[in-house]
Automatic annotation (TrEMBL):
UniProt key word Transport: no
Protein name in the entry: Aromatic ring-hydroxylating dioxygenase subunit alpha
The UniProt record lists the keyword Iron-sulfur: yes
Matches recorded under InterPro entries: Cholesterol_7-desaturase, Rieske_2Fe-2S, Rieske_2Fe-2S_sf, VanA_C_cat
Top-level taxonomic group: Bacteria
Coiled-coil zones: 321-348
Xref: SUPFAM superfamilies: Bet v1-like, ISP domain
Sequence ranges assigned to domain Rieske in this UniProt record: 21-124
GO molecular function (one): dioxygenase activity
Keywords attached to this entry: 2Fe-2S, Coiled coil, Dioxygenase, Iron, Iron-sulfur, Metal-binding, Oxidoreductase
Length: 348
């Protein structure tokens, strides 16, 4: 996706905004051996201690720049495989075996990142600078309340993550692209939409139709950007109310996106067990088929497709979200410029 050539705002958005939490991979991707992941315009190394404690550093040894992910995890640190330099989880060099006592020892020479786990995923705080504590990870109730059961659906798509945002902020496509779905076959082919502001974002919703099809999308900012929608279920879908989808999307590299969807349903007790069994044995394959319909469209869209659009009323939500994201990017650029000016003034 491109907006204007050499646009600094677009460059910020392409790699993800700073000072936000992002899901970066499913929890099972990371064990005790170091793992290298490209996300958010950077390369990270992640590993666990024997007790399960999770750590993340820039995948770069401060000595010669070799990937730390090719080294050996030693509890709370990694020994670089190139020359054995040991870097602790906080980025401090603890040992330089080839030159003990050199000035590199004791220096905080590698960027460290805060990571946490929730709902089957690892989240990383994309800090603009080193911070002692990040804000808490705040997830929607479908992912935190015991009244809900959820499954993580993770995939990677060939395309800009912002096209995934656009797709989710477009309820009307469900009426057409997904019309063969058992849960999205109902409702009018025409609709008017409105935007309703919330304390943490906004809801883009059909007017006069609710709980019939894919009728609304919510976008929220809780120091994590996430989206939420609900799909009504027929009785054949088992116990519980509407099927809720919570999504969050992370750039991997240019035109590859990490796509996280949590599929949620509100139920407890035996109904929860029944639904989880039914989901795994019958419904999951259907939901993957619906997701594949989205992927098939988005992966063949040209990178500049958003520059040759003729939008109409159904696209108000997309316009609203794009404008908001650009404003956030402008705010980030202004902060970076102010910080650089302050640094230059102090140096003078």
């Amino acid at each position: 996706m491109r907006t204007t050539a050499n646009d600094p705002v677009d460059a910020v958005l392409a790699v993800g905004l700073k000072d936000l939490w992002y899901p970066i991979c499913p929890s099972e991707f990371v064990a005790e051996r170091p793992v290298s992941l490209r996300r958010l315009g950077k390369k990270f190394v992640l590993w666990r201690e024997a007790n399960g404690a999770l750590h993340a550093l820039e995948d770069h040894c401060p000595h010669r720049g070799a990937p730390l992910s090719m080294g050996i995890a030693m509890g709370d640190r990694i020994a670089c495989g190139y020359h054995g330099v040991q870097v602790r989880f906080d980025g401090v060099v603890m040992s330089v075996p080839g030159s003990p006592g050199c000035k590199l020892e004791g220096a905080k020479a590698t960027r460290s990142y805060h990571v946490t786990e929730a709902c089957g995923a690892i989240f990383l705080f994309n800090a603009s600078s080193d911070i002692a504590e990040p804000p808490p990870l705040r997830l929607p109730e479908e992912l935190t309340s015991p009244e809900y059961s959820n499954f993580l659906c993770y995939t990677e798509w060939k395309g800009d993550y912002r096209y995934v945002l656009d797709n989710v902020m477009d309820p009307m496509h469900g009426t057409f692209l997904h019309k063969q779905s058992h849960s999205m076959a109902e409702g009018d082919n025409t609709a008017s939409f409105g935007i309703r502001e919330t304390d943490i974002g906004f809801v883009f919703e059909k007017e006069g139709q609710r709980d019939v099809n894919f009728d609304w999308t919510e976008w929220a900012d809780t120091d994590l950007h996430w989206m939420r929608l609900a799909i009504p279920y027929p009785k054949t879908g088992g116990p519980g109310g509407s099927f809720v989808i919570v999504g969050s999307y992370t750039p991997i590299v240019d035109n590859i996106a990490a796509v996280f969807h949590w599929r949620c349903r509100k139920l407890t007790g035996w109904q929860k067990d029944t639904w989880r069994f039914l989901y795994r044995n019958r419904l999951e394959a259907r939901h993957w088929n619906v997701l594949e319909q989205d992927r098939a469209v988005l992966e063949v869209m040209e990178p500049d497709a958003n520059q040759r659009e003729m939008l109409y009323q159904h696209d108000m939500g997309i316009v609203r979200l794009r404008r908001h994201m650009r404003n956030l990017a402008k705010e980030q650029l202004a902060k970076e410029e102010a910080a650089q000016e302050s640094k230059s003034a102090k140096a003078a």
